Amino acid sequence: MIKQELTYKERFQKLQPFLRTIFTDVKKDIRDEHLRSDRGFFKRNFPGKELSKLTVDDFLNVYPKFLEAGQETVGEFITNRWLLRHLDIYNFFEDRLTGLSEQFDEIAELERTFAKSLLEEAVERFGAEDCYIFSVLNSVALPSDLLQKLASDAAAA
Q1: 12 — phi, psi (to 5°)?
Q2: Which residue, 84, 107, 133, sits at the end of a domain?
Q3: Which bin fits 17, alpha (ψ -120 to 50), beta or left (φ > 0)?
Q4: pTM for the full model?
């Protein structure tokens, strides 16, 4: 599904308007995995807070700074957890793209007609916002104009 491999910093810059949605989806993973395993990170960035009471707003006050600073491990963690929580979208794209090519991860750019049809079905099933987030996080090889339209549809949702 790779068009061009963006850094996690670049992916999350594109997804800036959708960070609340992303962090809402992965808040349990952040609490239960990332912050429990890295107590130093937790204590430095959430002083005086209880782990179990951290909110999405708390995460939005801390994590975007690390993403913007290019902390790839933080970006990779959030991306992986979001994708795991949306396996239905991943499986849908994988199924459709495998029908196109067994090496779908090597596709430079999807053919426009195919990509348009794929997106129409995906948006109908999963909604524009989740499809856009998925497409950016997973570097789906969409023509740029279709990705821009999807971004607009997601923002309007």
Answers
A1: -70, -25
A2: 84
A3: alpha
A4: 0.92
